[in-house]
Design goal:
The complex is a heterodimer. By secondary structure, chain A is an alpha+beta fold. Chain A contains six helices and 13 strands. Chain A has helices at residues 21-36, 69-87, 89-96, 119-126, 130-139, 232-236, and strands at 2-5, 10-14, 42-48, 51-56, 104-111, 142-147, 154-157, 172-175, 179-183, 186-189, 194-196, 199-203, 224-229. In chain A, the strands form three sheets. Chain A has a seven-stranded mixed beta sheet. Chain A has a four-stranded antiparallel beta sheet with strand order 1-2-4-3, with helices on one face. The longest helix of chain A is centred in the first third of the chain and has 19 residues, at 69-87. Chain B is α+β, with helices and mostly antiparallel strands. Helix content of chain B is 14%, strand content 26%. Classes of the chains: A alpha+beta, B alpha+beta. Chains A and B meet through β3 and β4 of A and β15 and α4 of B.
Chain lengths: 239, 307
């Protein structure tokens, strides 16, 4: 675990060198530990790939003992992380014992046609038929490595190599909310309409972000995701 | 009690001190780009520092209140209203804030605060997400906003000590902390006078000047960023992230503006110049703590002036 300041109100904790399942488990455990007892003075926690960034109030961590607030907050995080391995065996063990089933979110997707205008581009680039693109995409198991291009936007790891396709040369100025896309090695879903450069292969009727709902974002870092193909009729009549 | 907007002004939005605790869901802080100006304006009308007010850029709104009230303008220098003092306003009287003579962003605080419904714990407007503030958007002519009915009495003629305020300037030296990739940009980051480009908004200030060259070309894995983070994309033109910036970024991080100097950035208009100077984290945190102390003293002092 290494620490580095991010400006004067945050600290970046790095938990590994790569982005594998082991690191993801550690990231998720640390987030759970920090959020469950949100210590007085810890304002926000942001996980992304191998890092957890903790935003804090320096005034609360100013103990007047010659150490900076930064040094104090690093100490608190280190102490809580140590408790995390022992104090949260439930979380860590559940992950180890076949996390594929625990906390999996299934996202229904209508692939292709007007719902996925770029599926032909992806098929051609990958040397596949359009139906194979959908089957491969829905057949894989994904993990949420980061949330945050926009509210609720998940960066998913686990895209089959056969489906990797470069981003569009020119981004669209507006991508419909719910669009499922591929960008390089990554796949994800646009929760809100926004500009976007990913190749759109389908669309989900699920609402991934709703500011009036609690929790507002459907997906969190560490969640596992599977996509399930649905028909246009099912899409239109979704709850 | 109501506030009627006759002329919206430029980029006028309802803001408080921001939406904290949701960065993990990809929701930016939002809130006032110059938090000090908002806090002081609120204190001047007897509000809590976090009360919602109007923020606008370069051109202020024209408005009218349905009852007598007290307002205060936070900002460097504007036509139409003096800065940094409470002003009594009569019911039906037109308050016309014109253009900014100096600085960029102004804050109009009203006694009682603007009481739009909070979303995710804050009254700040998130323009890109179209939620929060007043209907998730900038104000238009004809909008009507809710205010609580409160009475405030002004004390004797007085003014605040200028030492409370940041050293606003059209060509400041802004203090920064090192970022993860500072070393890769060399001395140019600290020796260049950058100019603020017109492509600047609540998400960030884009800087022009010499383009910065990175010594290492490796791609970076996205990680958290914050208001004040100075990103340097491949085109070499730095972007200083501000209140509405995305929560995660993959561009190199050249530096981080220290929190006490963020108001200096918020008051820069297109064409203004800025240089960066490195300070230590210890120094930055000492300055932040000292500034909170100063604002606390202001708060106590003002509590006696207003009833």
């Amino acid at each position: 675990m290494t620490f580095a300041p991010l400006g004067d109100h945050a600290v970046v904790v790095t938990l590994g060198a790569g982005v594998d399942d082991v690191v993801l488990t550690r990231v998720r455990s640390l987030v759970a530990v920090l959020e469950s007892g949100r210590a007085n003075g810890i304002v926000d926690v942001v996980a992304a790939y191998a890092t957890v960034t903790v935003f804090y109030d320096p005034a609360v961590f100013n103990r007047g003992d010659g150490k900076t607030p930064y040094e104090h907050v690093c100490q608190v995080i280190g102490e809580r992380a140590a408790k995390g391995d022992k104090g949260w065996p439930g979380l860590v063990q559940a992950e180890r014992a076949g996390g594929d089933k625990a906390g999996v979110v299934e996202i229904p997707v209508c692939y292709g046609g007007e719902y996925g205008p770029d599926v032909e581009v992806v098929a051609r680039h990958c040397g596949l038929k359009e139906a194979e693109v959908a089957a491969l995409h829905a057949g894989a198991s994904y993990a949420v490595h980061a949330v945050g291009f926009s509210p609720g936007f998940p960066y998913l790891g686990g895209l089959p190599e056969k489906l990797q396709t470069p981003r569009r040369a020119t981004p669209r100025t507006s991508v419909p909310a719910g669009s499922v896309g591929i960008g390089g090695m990554q796949t994800g879903v646009y929760p809100l309409a926004s500009p976007g450069g990913w190749q759109l292969i389908g669309c989900t009727p699920l609402v991934l972000f709703d500011a009036t709902r609690s929790p507002a974002a459907l997906l969190r870092v560490g969640d596992r995701v599977r996509f399930k193909a649905i028909t246009p009729k099912e899409f239109l009549s979704w709850k | 009690m109501e506030m009627k907007i006759h002329r919206g002004g430029m980029q006028t939005t309802v803001q408080d001190l921001g939406r904290t605790g949701h960065r993990g869901a990809g929701v930016p802080l939002c809130g006032a780009m110059d938090p000090v100006a908002l806090r002081v304006a609120n204190l001047l009308v007897g509000n809590a520092e976090n009360a919602a007010a109007l923020e606008f850029a370069l051109v202020g709104p024209e408005l009218e209140f349905s009852q007598d009230t007290v307002v205060a303008l936070g900002g460097v220098e504007w036509e139409g209203l003096p800065s940094w003092q409470p002003v009594a306003v009569r019911a039906g009287e037109r308050v016309k804030i014109g253009t900014a003579k100096r600085g960029c962003r102004g804050y109009l605080a009203v006694a009682g605060g603007i009481t739009v419904d909070p979303v995710m714990g804050s009254r700040s407007t998130y323009l890109r997400g179209s939620f929060g503030g007043f209907q998730g958007r900038a104000l238009h002519d004809g909008d009507v906003l809710p205010l609580p009915a409160v009475t405030r009495q002004l004390g004797d003629h007085w003014r605040i000590d200028a030492r409370v305020l940041p050293a606003y300037s059209p060509h400041p030296v802004v203090r920064v902390l090192r970022g993860a990739q500072t070393e890769e940009f060399g001395a140019a980051l600290f020796e260049t006078e950058f100019k603020v480009s017109p492509q600047s908004d609540r998400m960030g200030l884009r800087l022009a000047g010499s383009t910065l060259v990175r010594s290492n070309k490796a791609d970076l894995i996205s990680s958290a960023v914050a208001p004040g983070t100075v990103q340097v994309p491949p085109d070499g033109k730095p972007i200083v992230l501000m209140a509405d910036a995305q929560t995660i970024g993959g561009y190199p991080q050249g530096a981080h503006v220290i929190s006490v100097d963020l108001p200096l950035m918020a008051q820069l208009r297109p064409g203004d110049a800025v240089r960066f100077a490195e300070v230590s984290l210890t120094e930055a945190q000492k300055l932040a703590l000292a500034h909170e102390h100063t604002l606390a003293l202001l708060r106590e002092g003002l509590a006696h002036k207003l009833r």
